Amino acid sequence: MSALTIEGLKEILNEAAGEDDSFKPGQDILDVPFLELGFDSLALLETVALIKRKHGVAIADDEMAYLETPRQLLDKVNGQIAA
After folding, report:
1. Is 42 domain-assigned?
2. What local confidence, expressed as pLDDT, does residue 83 receive?
3. Start and end of every Carrier domain (predicted)?
4. Do 21 and 14 form a contact (C-beta atoms < 8 A)?
5. How many domains, in total, are found in the chain?
6. Is 70 in contact with 9 (CB distance < 8 Å)?
7. What share of the chain is helix, strand, coil (3-state, %, to 5)?
């Protein structure tokens, strides 16, 4: 399975939020906290569910509490894909 890219994550985040094109191509969101991006815990749970469905990577709810930025989430997902 191929790694999840930031652009792929943006698509998943947009889908989880129920919005189209919330993030512009090339917009740097890697180190912006999810709360500043407008994602609450419910939106993040939906994001994790979409990642599991699309990429086969499961992230426990308690692990999500420590993943505060898209970069941290990408590192977690891609680390599991590589394993």
Report:
1. yes
2. 81
3. 3-81
4. yes
5. 1
6. yes
7. 55, 0, 45
